[in-house]
Write a structure and sequence with these properties.
2 copies of one chain form a homodimer.
Chain A (H helix, E strand, L loop, with lengths): L1 H6 L5 H8 L4 E6 L7 H14 L3 E6 L4 H8 L9 E4 L14 H4 L3 E4 L9 E5 L1 H14 L5 E5 L5 H16 L9 E3 L4 H11 L8 E4 L2 H13 L9 E6 L12 E4 L2 H16 L8 E4 L2 E3 L12
Chain A binds a DNA duplex (30 and 30 nucleotides) through α2.
Chain lengths: 302, 302
Amino acid sequence: MKVVEEIGYTPNRLAASLRQGRSYNIAVLLPDISNPYISPIVRSVERVAQLRGYSVILKDTQDDPELERSFTAMVNTRQVDGIITNSQRIPFDISADRPVADQIPPIVNASEFCDLDGIHKVGVDNVAIGRDATEHLLQLGHTRIATITGPSSILSSKQREQGFLAALNEAGVAFDERLKFEGDYSSESGCDGVQKLMQLKNRPTAIFCFGDLVAMGAMHALRELGYRIPDDISIISVDGIALSQYCAPPLTTVAQPLTLIGEQCATTLIDLIEGRKPEKLINILPHQLLTRASTAPIPGFT
Amino acid sequence: MKVVEEIGYTPNRLAASLRQGRSYNIAVLLPDISNPYISPIVRSVERVAQLRGYSVILKDTQDDPELERSFTAMVNTRQVDGIITNSQRIPFDISADRPVADQIPPIVNASEFCDLDGIHKVGVDNVAIGRDATEHLLQLGHTRIATITGPSSILSSKQREQGFLAALNEAGVAFDERLKFEGDYSSESGCDGVQKLMQLKNRPTAIFCFGDLVAMGAMHALRELGYRIPDDISIISVDGIALSQYCAPPLTTVAQPLTLIGEQCATTLIDLIEGRKPEKLINILPHQLLTRASTAPIPGFT
DNA sequence: GCGGCACATGAAATCGATTTCCAAAATACT
DNA sequence: AGTATTTTGGAAATCGATTTCATGTGCCGC
């Protein structure tokens, strides 16, 4: 060890990786790093990975299937041992006659799910989230509830909508198709949605935004148009990003357990890599309604 | 190539890296991924790296010097070819009698600088930012301007403060020490700062927050206390994160060219790695004052 | 027709840690 | 004491692409 110190020897991890056939890297594939809801997930993935001796390679796919596919190839080239992906596409060709597990490398679907069975998934119950948010509004007396959804191609958005409709249905409230605006989870789509929705003759008394960013854009547009929140209109959303409590007014939102999702993803993936069988194939974590000031009873509601 | 297709051969990048002594990975060291101002930087680093054949390994240092040092060791172990760091600490022992460049691996200081010469740096002129923000407020007639700064140990904060004081000085305005609150760039510190500052007998008419997150916390606290922005008090800050335009009111802020910073960092680092000499040792990029609705002239100001 | 040169081909060495292998030494057991 | 088992030590093979080296082939010019 004295000599090691003297000549400043450090082991070459690449050589070790080559011999062992393991890179001790995991890739995290994200359509967009900029969405603040992803930061706590990445942060906790990083923390757990670090703890278990792995490094995290971050890949911004810009939601481009081509890029996704090229990143996935990093498993074959041995640059990474496994993948956490926040996309609903799994860029592998799966044939139905063999078990899925044999056809793919270690992979975990985070928060945003693909529709393939046999893939490990960690996330929330988006149907329940849609239902809970809607029930909160219904309890406050709202019946004209608009939605600003995510892209209709995205499962999480479809499921939240499903929960929304189920809750309306159970309450015996009919849904007006004109109160739906399809956005893309961005703040801009929140703005656009509000502009469209508030032109209606029969305006909504509440808007259910499918993401906190959307809600922030929506609230901005509402303020511009001179509406008061929550006096004139209530806003509820999903995600529970840190900044949601600093909105004006602080945002009522169904929070996802982001840190927990990250932890579970990393744990599951590394278990898979190391040949341990993860406890669950599908790991649904609890969400939580954070009731803040952006929702209120409709005027005259007892 | 037909055989390659048939047996599904993919080259093992690890083997290539071992032989070539290059991993084609670069590390990005960040004290906290969660700060939204860092996302566009990371995103563009990733994009440029991708374009030039490199992958980005993300490391959340949690501002812990110990972790930083261990991550830096990844250069020695050949896991990464170079480092972009957002910290003001450079975890290398530098002796003064040899050129710095010979003692460190390829490294680029992003946005947050260390005080060591000879390190490549990409960022903004924080003194000028402090000055510009202050002059904007002065032009609106404000003279009782409070600051909610970053940690006093952080260079960017010190420099913004320096610019602030210089601008006040040039305008012949004396600075009241009680109007300074030392925060830590977090939203919480914005809240705390406002609570403290608004207890003063002689309250400020404007607050200069040293980050957008800080401003969002500060505006939240001000609203809670019943102040109107910008009627009762003006708020200005620094960063120019995407969400700043959706604040209530939209935030006047001195925007950093975040995407550009990321691009330049990646370009400079990869040039260093590949033996090309980067154009500049210190690369200062232009900032821009975004005048929005959170600042207004003091009442009765012409 | 033959030396000289560029180019192509294939075998062998290389990167550096891990793993395997074999022989030698140390310990255990009857 | 003698065999069986474990431990130890060091040499050699291994991972797979890159690089080097040594041939062999083809083409040019004199």
